[in-house]
């Protein structure tokens, strides 16, 4: 499978049933193309249940029974005979043809404390079962790994969410579930991208606040980012594309381009307002003066992204989300922000004048 989800525990027996239940839940889900695991219960085993109370009546200690089984079937090294030139190991065991089948255990006898021989079948019960061919480990813990592939239109993010929810319902506290391979890389990457997104917003706000010497005008510029992100994500949804790593890169590129458009308008409006124009006239003049350079830069970015959006070139299909994010976000934000940004600018200027200027900490310095 392309992706993997691992279950780990101290006791391997605790992993078998939860792993099988989780695998069955994944197989019945329509988003998974295939699900397999490294749990192969094909190794014949014999499980022994000691009858402790009955053994006590016979005067037999359970440790004595375990030692008799070990001596009979494990080829236990007991003694070393040293000669003049050679050494010989004494191994206590039964004959090879007497330890191959389940019934051979019933031929074993155990000495009681009085020295009498008691048949093994009167001291323990046995039954056959199938055990694991191999026991895998992750970080020194017993593990069972589920491997899965997804159908073409099913996103890894949705699959990760489904597996996490099902694991929370099925797995007991003693078992830890974690993604491995590409699924783990995707989860870690998305966490880092979300953190980088908020860091980028904070850095942009801080730099713009220093540039304009204002608490509110950075918000005017950054308000266009939500519109652009909505346009980019909606475009991905319309064309049935996933928000892959390339799509996230496209979102970051889109934020940079759209922020630049907002800066061009707000910066010009602040300069005109300082020259004596009212807020409304300043933002109107800025929108008219900056309309042509904004359209030119937007068209240049669109022309560069259209080949990527249609999947042009080698391995172009994987980069389609990047192009769609930028193209869709630019078109949508270009239409909307030219009307929304001036309104936000005027509203925030009124808010600054009537509210923030009355608070010494937030009041702006009048020149």
Biggest sheet features: 5 strands, antiparallel
The secondary-structure class comes to alpha+beta
- Which value, in Å, is the CA radius of gyration? 36 Å
What share of the residues does DSSP label as strand, in percent?
15-25%
Number of helices: 9
Number of strands: 11
The oligomeric state of the chains shown is: single chain
CA-based shape = elongated
Overall helicity: 40-55%
The SSE string, one letter per element, is EHEEHHEEEEEEEHEHHHHH
Low-confidence stretches: none
Q: Give the distance, in angstroms, between the N- and C-terminal Cα atoms.
A: 66 Å
Mean pLDDT: 83
Structural features, described:
The strands form 4 sheets. Strands 1, 2, 9, 10 and 11 form a 5-stranded antiparallel β-sheet that branches. The protein has helices at 13-28, 52-58, 62-73, 156-170, 181-212, 217-238, 245-274, 279-309, 320-354; strands at 3-9, 32-37, 41-50, 76-82, 87-92, 109-111, 117-119, 124-132, 136-138, 141-150, 176-180. The model has no long low-confidence stretch (mean pLDDT 83). The protein is of the alpha+beta class. It is built from 9 helices and 11 strands. The chain is elongated and about 115 Å long.
